């Protein structure tokens, strides 16, 4: 590979700078600040880019070489490799590499590139590049990198496959940590071990439980036997107790029989002559009952003392004889006749109607004569005619002098008469109400009429004054005159003209006729009444005498007759009853005596007091019944007791008493509780013990897995070890050439440096001083820089068999003295025959010229 | 007369450790359930006697709940007699004092039960009678004789052994044996035969294949018919997965070679040759097979292909590594292959799985 040129658009302090490179050595010896390091960095950056400028990046190259003046940050580099010409154009973002732009041209054609340009063309990563092709004073690390090793491997092998021990060991190591970690124990082996331990504990527990089961089974069997035994004992005890209960019951029956016998004996003792038979007692009871009835009948007299007193009183009443029915009928007829007579005599006042009564009252003080009646008729006719005439003649408006005006004094006189009549009525009303009222009404009516007429006349006058025809006025006058006469005739009778004079007249006429009729009737009636009254008086006298003979002087005839009839009936009834009562008494006494006889015999037979037998017979009957019942009861009980004994086989009385079942039952209950609890325990234990098989199987599985894990872990560690061994072998194979080259190059510069140098598999350089191996880090900076140079040269010689990369030296030899520097210069000149060198220095003493 | 010959129910037994817990628990339940189904079969089919030729329980000290289950099944099948002969696993097992009329037991002496012209005799072998029992067996010639024992059939006597030679010409028509968990049998003598009923349900990958019981029918002679009765089968199969590059390809290859039934349990052995970097086939193929069967345990028994010779000319770290491992002493060849495979995967930047 040969660098041809580069163009820096903006990179650090360099802007718009172009550089051309010699195929062998391009040396820059410029003062500080020229941009040598900038150019060296640029060249590296073109191939490997720049790391992003992050907050924690520190003062990295992106930040350091961001163009001071701004503008496009980057440029291009032109180089040859593998017979082709390449150009890299790269521009950097100020912060982030993701925003950088990169273009590769292959013979002028843009070419896509996967990955880093540096890795493509140099075959190593940036770090490896910095450790080989790039040497600065700050970096004198003498060690390899994985990339270098890989390159060396490939170099040695002649192939490329990217195999990387570090990555492989890391992968295996990480896998190994899954199986076993150095601490914490959260790995497969630790976990499986813990699981096995846990399972072992569980198994131990389950075994203990399982071991204990047999003993529990035995206890359970024991308890079951105990329960069975207790059950049998309880059953036997119950059977014995049942027998004893039967004996008790039998004894109770016998005891009851004995008490019944005693009760019967008590009864017997009350009857020294024996207990009467039931039939005898019944007969005596019947007799006593009959006697009682008879006595009651005797007590219950049909003729009482009251009856006697009453009879005596009636006897006195009828001392003259009791009136029979015929006599009473006569009296009754007389009474009816008297009533009839009374009715007739009192009837007249009561038969008038109200109107008739009013008529009678109207005409009570003044009867209308026939003449008056006729006159009224005439006046009425006249008035009617005058009224009709007035109606026929029409009214006119001719003023005519008022004629026929009644004199004022007539009116005054009429009014005065009316007033007198009314006053007379008022005075009479206190004595004769009807008459008084009639007079008052007549007087009032007269006043009204007078007033009316007076006013009417005034109207007539007014009318006449208003212009009525003489004909009309005359008719009116005639009418008025008729009216006045009618009023004069009727007013004394109290007739009102409110309904008109004609009506009033007609009323009078009718009333007068009716009055006449009524009056005639009354008079006839009166005559009759007088006759009847005489008759009635005679009857009254007769009836009075009749009733007085029996002491009945008060009340109406009807009442007296009823009383008399009642007394007579009562007397007759009492007489009959008295006779009957006497007869019955005689019969009763006879029967009582007959009835008493068997009772007396009964008492004598059994020694009972006759006087007390009635009260005592019930007790005797009761005793008899009681005795019979007792005897029957005793027989029944004896029969039952015998049957009970036979049924229960109660022949031999047990010697032992009843057993206390309570204690046995309690013991049984306790045993059952124990058994239930133990059963529950056994069930739980079996459940746990049943897991034993699975636990053991799980533990076996875990042990197997643990063994596998351990084996896998051993496999991994073994593999790592063998990989490392292989790697060491390879390194041994390729480290030696590097070491040899290192020794060769370093001997050119510093012989002592080249002697007794050893290089580890990691390319660490050690040299011997005073019989001891020391690290190159013990060297001065100058000699270290020589080591670094020689090491890089040795690496490159071995890494690149064919096309070598260019080398960049950014003033790495600042620590060398003049002698060493001269040797380095010679070395570099020689190297330039094989490598393209780009050499930077800032002091002529370190300048290298070709 | 119908008789069932079964044995080795191993009630209360744990299952294969290779079963996941849920499969294990399920199988335990199925084991009990199958015994219940057997009783139901007996009831429905008018079986007069069920011969239990040993190892009804898995332990001399079976759990109470297992015993109660067993006795409950027997009690609830009153029309069938259960002739219980203890085996080597349950020789010391005892039952509760409760009398179960249809549970007939045997002892260390010959005990017989007659069913018409069928005589069923049995003895529980132990050290004390292992040799003498043959001489005390005396069976009537005119009966159909069934003898029940538990042990390994052979020509020697001893505890847990059944000496067939000494049982010949003893008028045995059918020797009902227990102890071997696979059904099978053979001729005993000119008159009779012997048979193992096998266990009712397989408990692990060592008890694969069909399981059930023998149904015996008596007439002039005894005929036996095997009745498959297990809830499901356990099978072990192999599948060649040579050349597969990944687990899914391996799964497809397995599916082409093996017909799976959803209710069964399988152990699948992957055989053949695969590339050294093809790892983790077992777990992944098992996961793929989850939908094809109840459970699959897949073992990767493939040989890893690694051409050491191809690295002879490889002077890179890879080649050097291969050479270093190959030359290493004290490491078995198979392990060297594994180391090389692992190292190459690490160097190649591949995902490392073991």
With strands numbered from the N-terminus, the spatial order across the biggest sheet of chain A is 2-1-4-5-6-7
> What distance lies between the first and last C-alpha atoms of chain B, to the nearest angstrom?
61 Å
Tell me, briefly, the overall form of chain B. elongated
Outline the low-pLDDT stretches of chain B: none
- Domain tally of chain B: 2
Total beta-strand segments of chain B = 19
Structure annotation, total helices of chain B:
6
Whole-number radius of gyration of chain B? 27 Å
Q: Share of helix among residues of chain A?
A: 55-70%
What about the largest sheet of chain A?
Answer: 6 strands, antiparallel
Helix and strand element order of chain B = EHEHEEEEEEEEEEEEEHEEHEEHH
CATH class of the largest domain in chain B: Alpha Beta
Structural class, from secondary structure content of chain B? alpha/beta
Describe the global form of chain A: elongated
Oligomer: heterodimer
The overall pLDDT average of chain B reads 90
- Beta-strand content bin of chain A: 5-15%
Indicate the CATH topology of the largest domain in chain B: Purple Acid Phosphatase, chain A, domain 2
* Count of individual helical segments of chain A: 23
Could you explain how this protein is built, in words?
Chain A has helices spanning 36-48, 61-65, 117-122, 126-132, 146-157, 165-179, 188-269, 278-299, 305-317, 325-351, 354-362, 370-392, 408-428, 433-466, 470-490, 501-548, 557-606, 610-648, 661-689, 691-749, 751-754, 781-799, 818-831; strands at 2-11, 14-20, 25-29, 74-81, 84-91, 101-106, 109-111, 134-136, 757-759, 765-769, 772-775, 807-810, 837-841. With 850 residues, chain A is α+β, with helices and mostly antiparallel strands. Among the domains of chain A are: 205-271 and 636-689; 347-499, no CATH class. In chain A, helix 6 (165-179) runs antiparallel to helix 20 (691-749), helix 7 (188-269) runs antiparallel to helix 20 (691-749) and helix 14 runs antiparallel to helix 15 (470-490). The two termini of chain A are 20 Å apart. Chain B has 354 residues and is α/β, with parallel strands linked by helices. Helices cover 23% and strands 27% of the residues of chain B. Chain B has a 6-stranded mixed beta sheet with strand order 4-3-2-1-13-14. In chain B, helix 1 runs parallel beside helix 2 (64-75), helix 3 (247-257) packs across helix 4 and helix 5 runs antiparallel to helix 6 (333-347). At the A-B interface, helix 5, helix 6, helix 7, helix 19 and helix 20 of A face helix 5 and helix 6 of B.
């Amino acid at each position: 590979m040969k660098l041809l040129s580069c163009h820096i658009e903006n990179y650090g302090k360099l802007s718009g700078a172009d550089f051309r490179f010699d195929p062998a050595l391009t040396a820059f010896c410029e003062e500080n600040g020229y941009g040598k390091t900038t150019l060296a960095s640029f060249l590296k950056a073109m191939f490997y880019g720049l790391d992003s400028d992050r907050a924690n990046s520190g003062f990295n190259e992106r930040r350091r070489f961001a163009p001071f003046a701004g503008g496009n940050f980057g440029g291009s580099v032109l180089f040859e490799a593998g017979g082709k010409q390449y150009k890299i154009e790269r521009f950097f973002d100020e912060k982030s590499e993701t925003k950088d732009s990169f273009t590769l041209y292959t013979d002028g054609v843009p070419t896509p590139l996967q990955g880093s340009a540096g890795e493509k063309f140099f075959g190593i990563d940036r770090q490896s590049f910095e450790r080989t092709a790039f040497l600065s004073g700050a970096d004198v690390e003498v060690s390899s990198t994985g990339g270098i090793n890989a390159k060396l491997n490939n170099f040695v092998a002649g192939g490329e496959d990217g195999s990387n021990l570090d990555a492989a060991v890391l992968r295996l190591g990480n896998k190994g940590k899954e199986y076993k970690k150095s601490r914490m124990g959260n790995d497969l082996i630790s976990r499986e071990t813990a699981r096995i331990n846990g399972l072992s504990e569980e198994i131990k527990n389950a075994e203990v439980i399982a071991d204990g089961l047999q003993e529990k089974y035995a206890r359970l069997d024991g308890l079951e036997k105990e329960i069975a035994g207790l059950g049998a004992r309880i059953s036997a005890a119950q059977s014995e107790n049942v027998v004893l209960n039967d004996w008790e019951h039998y004894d109770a029956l016998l005891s009851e029989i004995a008490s019944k016998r005693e009760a019967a004996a008590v009864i017997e003792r009350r009857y020294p002559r024996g207990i009467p038979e039931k039939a005898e007692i019944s007969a005596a009871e019947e007799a006593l009952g009959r006697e009682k009835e008879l006595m009651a009948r005797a007590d219950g007299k049909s003729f009482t003392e009251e009856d006697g007193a009453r009879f005596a009183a009636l006897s006195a009443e009828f001392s003259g004889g009791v009136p029979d029915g015929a006599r009473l009928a006569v009296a009754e007829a007389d009474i009816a006749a008297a009533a009839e007579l009374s009715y007739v005599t009192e009837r007249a006042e009561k038969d008038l109607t109200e109107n008739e009564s009013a008529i009678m009252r109207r005409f009570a003080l003044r009867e209308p004569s026939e003449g008056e009646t006729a006159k009224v008729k005439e006046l009425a006719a006249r008035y009617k005619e005058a009224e009709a005439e007035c109606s026929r003649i029409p009214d006119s408006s001719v003023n005519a002098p008022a004629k026929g005006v009644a004199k004022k004094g007539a009116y005054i006189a009429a009014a005065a008469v009316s007033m007198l009549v009314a006053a007379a009525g008022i005075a009479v009303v206190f004595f004769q109400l009807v008459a008084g009222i009639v007079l008052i009404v007549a007087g009032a009516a007269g006043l009204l009429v007078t007033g009316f007429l007076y006013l009417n006349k005034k109207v007539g006058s007014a009318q006449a004054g208003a212009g009525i025809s003489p004909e009309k006025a005359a008719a009116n006058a005639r009418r008025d005159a008729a009216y006045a006469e009618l009023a004069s005739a009727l007013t004394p009778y109290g007739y009102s003209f409110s309904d008109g004079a004609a009506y009033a007249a007609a009323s009078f006429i009718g009333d007068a006729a009716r009055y006449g009729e009524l009056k005639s009737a009354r008079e006839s009636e009166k005559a009759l009444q007088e006759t009847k009254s005489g008759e009635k008086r005679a009857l009254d006298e007769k009836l009075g005498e009749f009733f007085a003979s029996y002491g009945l002087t008060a009340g109406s005839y009807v009442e007296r007759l009823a009383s008399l009839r009642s007394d007579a009936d009562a007397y007759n009834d009492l007489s009959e009853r008295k006779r009957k009562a006497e007869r019955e008494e005689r019969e009763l006494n006879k029967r009582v005596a007959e009835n008493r006889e068997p009772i007396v015999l009964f008492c004598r037979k059994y020694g009972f007091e006759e006087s007390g037998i009635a009260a005592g017979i019930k007790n005797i009957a009761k005793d008899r019944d009681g005795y019979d019942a007792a005897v029957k009861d005793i027989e029944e009980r004896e029969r039952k007791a015998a049957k009970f004994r036979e049924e229960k086989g109660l022949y031999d009385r047990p010697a032992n008493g009843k057993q206390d079942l309570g204690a046995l039952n309690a013991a049984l209950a306790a045993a059952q509780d124990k058994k239930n609890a133990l059963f529950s325990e056994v069930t739980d234990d079996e459940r746990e013990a049943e897991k034993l098989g699975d636990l053991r199987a799980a533990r076996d599985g875990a042990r197997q897995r643990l063994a596998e894990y351990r084996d896998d872990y051993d496999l991994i560690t073994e593999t790592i070890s063998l990989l490392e061994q292989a790697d060491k072998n390879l390194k041994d194979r390729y480290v030696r050439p590097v070491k040899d080259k290192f020794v060769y190059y370093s001997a050119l510069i510093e012989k002592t440096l080249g002697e007794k140098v050893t290089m580890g598999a990691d390319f660490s350089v050690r040299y011997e001083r005073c019989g001891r191996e020391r690290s190159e880090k013990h060297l001065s900076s100058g000699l270290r820089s020589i080591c670094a140079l020689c090491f890089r040269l040795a690496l490159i010689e071995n890494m690149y068999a064919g096309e070598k990369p260019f080398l960049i030296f950014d003033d790495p030899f600042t620590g060398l003295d003049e002698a060493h520097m001269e040797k380095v210069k010679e070395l570099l000149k020689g190297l330039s025959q094989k490598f393209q060198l780009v050499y930077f220095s800032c002091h002529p003493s370190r300048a290298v010229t070709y | 007369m119908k008789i069932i010959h079964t044995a080795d129910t191993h009630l209360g037994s744990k299952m294969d450790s290779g079963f996941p817990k849920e499969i294990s628990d399920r199988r335990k339940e199925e084991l009990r359930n199958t015994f219940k189904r057997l009783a139901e079969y007996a009831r429905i089919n008018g079986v007069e006697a069920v011969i239990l030729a040993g190892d009804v329980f898995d332990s001399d000290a079976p759990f109470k709940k297992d015993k109660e289950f067993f006795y409950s099944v027997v009690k609830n099948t009153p029309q069938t007699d259960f002739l219980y002969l203890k085996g080597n696993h349950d020789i010391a097992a005892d039952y509760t004092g409760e009398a179960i009329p249809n549970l007939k037991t045997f002892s260390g002496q010959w005990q017989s039960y007659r069913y018409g012209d069928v005589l069923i005799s049995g003895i529980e072998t132990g050290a004390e009678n292992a040799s003498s029992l043959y001489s005390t067996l005396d069976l009537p010639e005119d009966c159909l004789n069934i003898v029940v024992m538990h042990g390994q059939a052979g020509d020697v006597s001893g505890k847990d052994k059944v000496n067939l030679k000494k049982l010949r010409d003893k008028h045995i028509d059918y020797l009902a044996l227990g102890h071997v968990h696979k059904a099978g049998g053979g001729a005993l003598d000119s008159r009779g035969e012997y048979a193992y009923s096998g266990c009712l349900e397989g408990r692990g990958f060592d008890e694969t294949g069909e399981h059930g019981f023998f149904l015996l029918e008596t007439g002039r002679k005894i005929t036996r018919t095997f009745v498959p009765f297990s809830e499901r089968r356990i099978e072990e199969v192999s599948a060649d997965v040579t050349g597969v590059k990944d687990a899914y390809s391996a799964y497809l290859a397995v599916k082409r070679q093996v017909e799976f039934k959803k209710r069964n349990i399988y152990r699948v052995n992957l055989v053949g040759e695969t590339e050294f970097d093809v790892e983790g086939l077992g777990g992944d193929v098992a996961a793929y097979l989850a939908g094809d069967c109840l459970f699959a345990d897949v073992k990767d028994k493939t040989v890893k292909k690694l051409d050491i010779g191809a690295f002879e000319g490889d002077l890179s770290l890879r080649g050097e590594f291969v050479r270093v491992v190959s030359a290493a002493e004290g490491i078995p060849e198979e392990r060297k292959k594994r180391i090389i495979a692992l190292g190459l995967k690490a160097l190649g930047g591949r995902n490392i799985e073991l």
